[in-house]
Amino acid sequence: MKNLRSQISNLKLLIVAAVITLFASPAFAGEAAALDSGDTAWILVATALVLFMTLPGLALFYGGLVRTKNVLSVLLQCFAISGIVTVLWLVIGYSIAFSDGNAFTGGLSKMFFAGIMEGTLRGTIPESLFALFQMTFAIITPALIIGGFAERMKFSSILLFSALWLLVVYSPIAHWVWGGGWLQQMGLLDFAGGTVVHISAGVASLVAALVLGRRDGFPHTSMPPHNMTMTVKGAGMLWIGWFGFNGGSALAANGDAAMAMLVTHIAAAAGAMTWMFYEWKKFGKPTALGTVTGMVAGLGTITPASGFVGPAAALVIGIIAGLLCFNAVLFMKTVLKVDDSLDVFPVHGVGGITGTMLAGVFASTGLGIFSGQGFAEGISTMSSQLYVQFIGVAATAGYTAVATFVILKAVNAITALRVCKECEVEGLDVYGHGEQGYILN
Fold first, then answer.
1. What pTM value is reported for the model?
2. CB atoms < 10 A from the CB of 2, how many?
3. What pLDDT does 382 receive?
4. Pairwise CA distance, residues 343 & 243, whole Å
5. I need a surface site. Which of 246, 248, 321, 335 has the fewest CB within 10 A?
């Protein structure tokens, strides 16, 4: 009997020890134990890649496309927007986008990154890293808009416009799609920014181009890129950086990230080759400008679908991007004669719209006809998703257009949007900054 009681007592002690050990183990050690070092390491790299897209990628890409007298102004605009967005993202932008709020906007609980400490997590990565990763998206989006008003907008007006646009347009739309807002609740498929980044930037560029008017001499005076070598370098940096843009949006080092990177590369290549061969056939010669523009079109179009489609779909999406965006550029320049200086709307806007809709077509969850469902059931599922995608496109484009127009008018009331005609002829480098991009003795 004593032996039995002794065994029971020992068993109790073992159970208690096991429970204590269990709850003291890393699996139950709270937030710090939930951190995944692999996911964290990957998003650290992805964050650097996305910032690399703006500095120096987009800066060089855009800088080479403008005329010699404006190259420094474009480079500085990219740098300055990176700085001002960083500060505003810290102060309130991140809170608007990703703090708890309502269906349309976040609250103010994350102002100045309140509550974000070393051990604070967002999923399996530090929230500080999540906020930084999202900051790089917030930086490149208003920087893309530069292409719509390049070579004619005052530097002070650009800074004020970019600051207001970030808070009024970008941050709320990011909340709608990624921060728990109404489009996310509807089930919108936008893996890495078809609506949040490309449609919003493209539509804003179109509105800005219309409000500011054409550059002096457009479309009768030829305004070719001054340095295609610079542009091709920047394009290569964008291609590489886009792996972080799309692959990092998985927020984990997993199969979704790997597939997103694979389809991103395929779509970029397909867009570049489609544009190159189409241009070759239509005009007799393939150009470096056309090839790199097709690459950007493929990248922008695959972005919303990158986490939801496979390699074959990426090939189709890239080909469609090359064809559609090529003709959109021609239509804008030759028929509408809108001076969207660096083709932001026909490439990013049209690409973002196309990719967001095609995400509903090619996503594995939507194409039930290829996943074991009956044909009718599959078509019904896809139709429902396409409806959600259309709502996302229309809401983003409509809100961006109205808000951008209002912001531009407000900025113009404070400080004129456009430089004087003599200043435009002289060039923004000397007029705005007292510098020259090239001093050849």
1. 0.90
2. 6
3. 84
4. 23
5. 335
Dihedral class, residue 173 (left if φ above 0, else alpha if ψ from -120 to 50, else beta): alpha
Task: Determine the length of the chain.
Answer: 441
CATH code assigned at 211: 1.10.3430.10
Cα–Cα distances in Å, from 360 out to 313, 341, 346, 367? Answer: 12, 31, 21, 8
Residue percentage of the chain with pLDDT more than 70: 89
Q: Are the C-beta atoms of 87 and 164 separated by less than 8 Å?
A: no
Would the CA dihedral through 227, 228, 231, 233 be positive or negative? negative
Contact between 235 and 61 (Cβ < 8 Å): yes
Q: Residue 122: give the domain boundaries.
A: 35-433
CA distance 356 to 202: 14
Number of folded domains in the chain?
1
Residue 207 lies in a domain: yes
Residues 61-100: tens digit of each pLDDT: 999 999 999 999 999 999 999 999 999 999 999 999 999 9
Helix (H) or strand (E) holding 121: strand 121-122
Predicted pLDDT of residue 11: 46
Asked if the model's pLDDT at residue 15 lies above 80, the reply is no
